[in-house]
């Protein structure tokens, strides 16, 4: 609630022409937007380009934001739409092959042991997520990485809650099956 009020003040000042307020908003959410774009595109330069496009769209549409709902949800809807448009425009197959994923994009700067563990875990997660359809990855992303409720995801995507739950259940079953195969073999 506190962040929401701070966002509202920053938005108000940014709309009045305060460049520093806009920069503060961008800095507050750039990591969130970049990581979302990276998880959806599997490519750091595409994620960076997309992040810039998302913030341009947010800035252009800021006057249309009327404080209804959370700013973060509104912003993530723009990010989601821009990402889906990007994937379609680039002709990417929504089912990535694990070999297409750039492991350097998910780099950590911890100790060598924890860095290796995080690298291994990220590689496994990316490989598993790459086997999901675009619609399934969006639901997983918004539910588990963005911590949105089904109602918020429905508002953001325009998809019925029952459909979202079905996609999530199907995705989790598919991921579970893939994990079982990897651990049995």
Defining key terms:
74% helix; globular; sigma factor; RNA_pol_sigma70_r4_t2; mainly alpha; 185 residues; Rna Polymerase Sigma Factor, Chain: A; Sigma-70 family RNA polymerase sigma factor; DNA-binding; RNA_pol_sigma_r2
Q: Round the mean pLDDT to the nearest integer and report it.
A: 78
Structural class given helices, strands, pairing? Answer: mainly alpha
Shape: globular
- Radius of gyration equals 18 Å
Q: What is the N-to-C succession of helices and strands?
A: HHHHHHHH
Q: Helix share of residues?
A: over 70%
- Indicate the proportion of strand residues: under 5%
CATH superfamily of the domain at 1-92: RNA polymerase sigma factor, region 2, helix turn helix motif
Count of helical stretches: 8
Biggest sheet architecture: none
Reported CATH architecture of the domain at 1-92? Orthogonal Bundle
In the CATH scheme, the class of the domain at 1-92 would be: Mainly Alpha
Number of strands: 0
Uncertain spans: 93-110
First-residue to last-residue Cα separation? 48 Å
CATH topology of the domain at 1-92: Rna Polymerase Sigma Factor, Chain: A
Describe the structure concisely for a colleague.
The chain has helices at residues 2-15, 19-41, 44-61, 71-89, 112-129, 134-145, 150-157, 161-184.
Structure description:
- By secondary structure, the chain is an all-alpha fold.
- It has a domain at 1-92: Orthogonal Bundle (Rna Polymerase Sigma Factor, Chain: A), CATH 1.10.1740.
- The protein has helices spanning 2-15, 19-41, 44-61, 71-89, 112-129, 134-145, 150-157, 161-184.
- Helix 2 packs across helix 3 (44-61), helix 3 (44-61) crosses helix 4 and helix 6 packs across helix 8 (161-184).
- The chain starts with a helix and ends with a helix.
- The model is unreliable at 93-110 (pLDDT under 50).
């Amino acid at each position: 609630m506190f962040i929401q009020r701070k966002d509202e003040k920053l938005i108000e000042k940014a709309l009045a022409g305060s460049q520093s307020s806009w920069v503060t908003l961008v800095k507050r959410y750039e990591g969130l937007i970049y990581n979302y774009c990276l998880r959806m595109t599997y490519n750091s330069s595409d994620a960076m380009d997309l992040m810039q496009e998302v913030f341009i769209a947010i800035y252009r549409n800021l006057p249309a934001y009327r404080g209804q709902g959370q700013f973060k949800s509104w912003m993530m809807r723009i990010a989601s739409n821009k990402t889906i448009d990007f994937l379609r425009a680039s002709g990417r197959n929504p089912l990535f092959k694990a070999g297409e994923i750039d492991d350097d994009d998910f780099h950590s700067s911890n100790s060598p042991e924890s860095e290796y563990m995080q690298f291994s875990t990220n590689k496994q997660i990316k490989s598993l997520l790459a086997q999901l359809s675009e619609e399934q990855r969006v639901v997983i992303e918004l539910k588990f990485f963005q911590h949105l409720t089904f109602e918020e995801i429905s508002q953001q995507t325009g998809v019925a809650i029952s459909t979202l739950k079905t996609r999530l259940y199907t995705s989790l079953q598919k991921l579970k099956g893939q994990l079982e195969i990897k651990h049995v073999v």
